[in-house]
TrEMBL record:
InterPro entries: CpcD-like_dom
Subcellular location: Cellular thylakoid membrane
The name this protein goes by in its record: Phycobilisome linker polypeptide
Membrane association type: Peripheral membrane protein
Keywords: Antenna complex, Membrane, Phycobilisome, Thylakoid
Length: 83
């Protein structure tokens, strides 16, 4: 286990199921976004739901697309807030 974190594999179900909302601006149609199967809207900000496990991957992708991240917030479940 040389070089591995002690927390690898110690993920609980709650940690693995966390979702975050990325709010980004500056997305526009370009050579990179032309590779997508859908057009990119050019107005204001856009929000994406991102699972915890894909946060770094999504940050890199948005950076390549030239987007600026406005905020990252955890997605809260209303049922949890009422309890």
């Amino acid at each position: 286990m040389l070089g591995q974190s002690a927390l690898v594999g110690a993920r609980s179900g709650a940690v693995a199921n966390r979702v975050f909302i990325y709010e980004v601006e500056g997305l526009h149609q370009s050579d990179q976004t032309d590779l997508n199967r859908y057009p990119v809207r050019q107005s204001g900000t856009v929000q994406f739901k991102v699972p915890y496990a894909r946060m770094n991957e999504e940050l890199r992708r948005l950076n390549r697309l030239g987007a600026r991240i406005v905020s990252i917030k955890p997605l809260t479940d209303d049922a949890d807030a009422d309890a």
